[in-house]
Amino acid sequence: MTATTSAAALNRADPRLDLAIAFHPMIAKGTDRPFAWQAVATGGNGRSFAALSASLLPEQRPALEARRITLALEQAAAMGIHRTEALIALPLGAAAGLAEPLLSHLFRAALANGVATDRLVVEINADERGDLESAAALAEACTRRGLSVTLDGFAAGPIALKLLARFTPRFVKLDASLVRGIDASTSRRLMAEGVMRLARNMGVTVIARGVERRGEHDVLHAMGVRHFQIETAALPQPGLRREPRSTVAQPTHRRLAHRNRPAFPLRSTRASDIAFVAQVA
After folding, report:
1. Which of 47, 111, 233 is nearest to 17 (CA)?
2. In this structure, how many other beta carbons lie within 10 angstroms of the beta carbon of residue 158?
3. Largest interatomic CA distance in the chain
4. From start to end of the chain, where are the E strands?
5. What is the spatial distance between Cα 277 and Cα 241, in angstroms, rounded to a whole number?
6. Most buried in the list 34, 81, 268, 280, measured by CB within 10 Å?
7. Residue 140 and residue 135: Cα distance in Å, rounded?
8. Nearest to 170 by CA among 196, 211, 128, 205
9. Among 33, 76, 25, which Cα is nearest to 242's?
10. Predicted confidence (pLDDT) per residue in 21-45, tens digit
């Protein structure tokens, strides 16, 4: 059956389409406001989006992806993020279906909610269940449409490295499994250092997610990591500012995007906690 973004593959009353959207802030060290927000979708009873998607038939997954896009942009507009300069990061499952129909739906939803597409960042899981071609196809489709891309869940695995060899994303997010305990693990530290070397050479901004302790932060900071994602939801505040883009030397392989720039993620996301992020710099 041909993949489609229509909800026809799922009954519109199907409770699996009833998603909740939260926004997780990304902080650059030395600043006191997020430069971006990741839209995180969950199903009923807090079920993860990945688990929810895995419970569906392949032909049903594009409808779920489309629903996530629609709700995330509606919520971003309702919370006023679209009136700020902060980026909006939208995870999109590469293996869910055809890339072009999903991106067409994304553009329509952005237009309907008054969200500028140059503020959108598509997040592609760097593992994608081992499906390199689906992830590459989605990245190529984003390139054609001028969308920035983040490789999420990056842990120096074979799929992640092959993708990075084919494309230059705007951001790379270190996987939480690589970040947690990095201050007590030589192997994790060496892998993260390797990713940082690649990123520096390619002009890519690295974001660490899942940092919970000062020791983890200090090791990552010593490596040159200046961007962190806080792993709990927060309410976007007015006046968010986007970091300026800067140009880099054109690499020999195809580019996906530009670059960005500088956080110590905390479990709490109160204003006082975000202020502490700036102090750690």
Report:
1. 47
2. 10
3. 54
4. 20-28, 36-42, 87-91, 120-125, 148-154, 171-174, 205-209, 227-229
5. 16
6. 34
7. 9
8. 205
9. 33
10. 999 999 998 887 899 999 999 998 8
